[in-house]
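Handout, page 2. Input:
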Amino acid sequence: MAGTDREKIVAIMKDNCRHAYLATCEGDEPRLRPVSPIVEDDMTIWVTTFATSRKVKQIKANANVCLAFVEQPAGDNAATAFGRAEIVEDAGAKKRVWGLAYFDLAEYFAAGPADDEFCLLKIAPRRVEWRDSWEGCTNIYEP
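Output:
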């Protein structure tokens, strides 16, 4: 895998966005669930969800999150991003990210990006722990 560490991490995230898990906090317990993030080349991570979901309530109480991207089936490539989730209300951003989705968001939000239930989360990682093989060590990247 050639390129800078940042490029390697983004490639791992993009290649494994169908095998990603988001951890939030609820009280003193972590909450983990599968998600389908959209990763941009600048390492911005977008997560679409329902506005009334438990994860949104948890993020409103504590915005610290962790996303894990793991290559299947062997798990050789993996990246775990730590950051804060921001709930994005901007209609332009919602429309733009809607267009980036690799899956059909209309299946969940019939009214499109203006749907009242369509919630957009933005995560800009402050630290990423990653590896590109089981033989290699875990690397730490801080943008």
